[in-house]
Amino acid sequence: MESGAVNYFYMTPLVVFFPVIGLLFNIIFGGLIVKKGRAGEIAVGTVASLASALSFGVAVLLGISLTGQRGPVTVPYLDWINIGTLNVHWGFQVDTLSVTMMLVVAGVGTLIHIYAIGYMYEDVRLNGDPARFRRFFVFLNLFIVMMMILVSSDNYLMLFVGWEGVGLCSYLLIGFWYEKGKEGIGNALAAKKAFIANRIGDFGFLIAMFLMFGMFGTFIYKEINAMAPAAAVTTPILITAMALFMLLGVMGKSAQLPLYVWLPDAMAGPTPVSALIHAATMVTAGVYLVARSYAVYSLVPVAQNWVALVGGLSALFAATIAVGQFDIKKVLAYSTISQLGFMVAAVGMGAYVAGMFLLVTHAFFKALLFLSAGSVIQGVEYGHHHVENDPRLKKQLKKLGHDFDPQDMRNMGGLRTRMKLTFWVYLIGALALAGIFPLAGFWAKDEILTESLVLKPYIFWLLFVAAFFTAFYMGRQVLLVFFGEPRSPAAEHARDNPPVMTVPLVVLAILSAVGGGLNLPAIDTFTKWLEQTNEKFSSLGFNLVVAGASTGLALLGLSLAWYLYWKRYQEMQSLPAAKRPDDPLRAYIGPVFTGMENKWWVDELYRAIILNPYVILSRFLADQVDGRFWHDWFHDVVIAGGYRALTRFLAVPIDLGVIDRIANGLADVTKALAGRLRRIQSGFVRNYALAVFIGVVIIIGYLVLR
Amino acid sequence: MLPVYYYVGLSAILFTLGALGVLIRRNAIVIFMSIELMLNSANLAFVAYARYYQSLRGQIFVFFVMTVAAAEVAVGLALIVAIFRTKHSIDVDQMSNLKG
To answer: CB–CB of B23 and A686 under 8 A?
Structure first.
């Protein structure tokens, strides 16, 4: 550490402990406060938001301190494990990479906390359990704690602690309304699915850590970075295996092929959760992990290829599915998988700056999109309630005669005029995601495309096509939700939300709009910032051809969406309702669209090839092996039967035959002896007297004659 | 003066008579008298030897024996009366409650 310059590194642990204080406060006092009604709920939410905001403040101070530094700083904090050569401590890695993550997590996290004060107020009432308001904020703070542990650790084991911790929070928050969902268990199943899919990934990460400890004997980034080049020469196979197993962890956490299936289901959680955990922060942990392991990955081109390929395929695959979804949050979920694919592909091919850049900007605009989607859902929900409580309007509703789904885009439309603010911020988010100049997504995506063209051209084409789909599905979504005529009474009576929800949206919208300024061509603020961590964090310059091509592509996607969902949609309205397809695209590419709508049947495929055999195997193990063999046969017949036979043997021949017979025989002998002896007792005084005399004579005789 | 073994012989004869009386007779009073006879045969032996050895210790012992005998008679007769009251008999063969 250099002396002289002012630094705040000693405050690093607070980045974790401020949210801890917040969650403890809400655990202990929140229950009492929340009973005070609206004001109490605001107080609980404010404490949680403040905890996150203070954490953000510390992160900012750390960022300022880093500007006076040449390289990374580590802040040792606690000893954890000391066994033999295994020395694990809880230390903090403060470098530009981790501070970037901290800023994103705490910054976006704080905005989402604030938004959630407004959103959850409605949500807990709608779902009929206001007492869960506090629980939500405790979980949210716990998530910030775990995410901070993850990004601030200076070794892989503490990173894994945070890694598992955010997985737990994800599980808890997906299943927040655990008794709701399909058949009253849908949300719980979604939470379980997320947990198990992540477990498969974590298994890979654990194996990677075992290999790591086997090779290096340490978990500390700095030491591994120093030893990796030598290990790549002596044990290339092990280090490749380590990188590939780590990729498995990335697939799970960052929802990449083939483990992405949990993320769309995770939309069962409340919308702020989807925004914070399943879009902006937790799912980017995998990207962070690869960027953090830059020293290892840059030595193993095979693993780099795989990472990039997984990312590229996920980006394209998920983008196609997003086109066919009708649930407003599912579209965003698949879009998230697709964008994570971009990031993973970027860090996989070594374009760490580009990947991190997209990570940051994506956190802005995807959080914005999710929160706006939450705003839309709640607006429609409000409209739905309004309609239901109005007897005149309720008659209209009856004609529709189906369960109302406030997340189905087919029930929306025309919200542009009804939710003005939400519309504008949503538009900004969508255009940023689509990659329209000069919004944040444009710069980040462009950087990735430029780098991939140089580093791995085949990835470039995957991402290029994915970018087209991105623009298309976002155009489709905006048009379906906000344009045209309202397609349900609920949408007709939707209204915008209170400022506590819209202010964070505006802030995020501004960030999404100007976020690209972080790394403008030729100025390269972000690149220089990350270069401080390691010189491998560099980026290529701006490529006008790629930028032009990708913008053209995005515009093409948007105009195609406009043609289909604006022009064709209007024409379709003249058709009779029975013949009218619910989606214009279905009219052109029917079977393909059905495939997209059904997510290419991946869930069904997994069910057929993994789940069902697994269930059959479990049944077999439970019924046949455990039930019939172990329980019925081994326990009942062998152990219980054997024991019973042994007991019977001990009871009858041994106890009755031997021990009892000894006791009884003793008694019988005594009795027979006594029967003989009693004859002596004649009862005649004379006899006794004679006995006395004889005795006296014998004694005297003895005394005299001896 | 008669030699001492005459007295001792008489004493032995009396003792034998007494012992036989205890063993043979059934009447409790007679048994009692036989016991007295044995005691007095012992007294006779004491007195004879006292005289023979010119010592008073034997004489003194006799007094003790007579005292004990008197006490014994008192207790013994009381017992006999008590037995008679319950059994209406003083035949010792009737008193065989301890027969096994």
So the answer is: yes
